[in-house]
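INFO batch 0412 | record 1 of 1 | parsing
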Amino acid sequence: MSYIPIPNDYIISKKFLRGISNNAFLLAFDEIQKLIYEIELSDNNIKDKHVVSKTINGLVKNGDLCDGKLYCNVNNMQYQKWEKYNLIFQAMSEKGFVFDGLGNNYALKNITEFILSYPKNPDVFIVLKSYDGLESLYWAKLSDDWNDERNYAALYLYLSLQNEKEKVFYKMIHDKLKASGLKHTLNENGSGPIHYHYKGKKSGKDFLFNRGWIFHVRLHHIHEYMDVFNDCTENVKNIILSGEDCNDCPKQCGNAYQFTYKGKDYSKIECYMNCFKFPVTYPVSQNNFVIPELTIGDVSSVEKLLDAELSFM
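INFO prediction complete | emitting tokens
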């Protein structure tokens, strides 16, 4: 689980607050997110770090919250499927969680119930109860106004990006596509790519930004703005010219981007997931050749290409 700070001015929907203040929820959210992240990073002999959130999720889903404590019925838990849960319990204990009713080895065998508490901030259980699953503490869905108007989904993705170059490209792309009237969607758990699209368009999804490392662009009309292409950096030109040829596409749907450059005809795949790929973080191998990654110096070229394509929409 990535640690993605929740904005200080974020307004939580009342249906999630369960009687505590907005500020108290924000503090508890930030605390539990940090705790899970720190446990995943700790040297606790747990190879699959995702089992940390899965185990905590199992505790919360099978526990009754009362007076800031979680009353856990072991008979309702399928703890046998939890990998090394005792090590996770131990790591939680070291972070301040209290397991009342369990021994020092944290074994659940022959135990019917126990009480889990976090004296430092009991409100963390209210936060955890707000989620059906704990695969991701995706805070963008906790607001009544999480969608396009407040751009919380985009802000969440922006904050999750790993380096400054990813953020520079994403901010430019997001601001430009939003200004052009496109809507954006992100999976409800905050995972996967973010899609930008016009409502009512047959394709449904015209641009895709895949968590920073690559984005896909439909340059339907590139043949109409080859002057813009000619003014691009050599790196951007190479990325586009390295796009997969339509003849190599297994779908063989007949759709293609067709253009001529320096006397040579090009026919590139139009299909959604295989259209022009712009690697941001590192090069991408494709069909025995490598698509180079973008540099900060390529920002203006990509921006001009987007402007040119958007003028046809």
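INFO post-check: The longest helix spans residues 22-41.
INFO record closed
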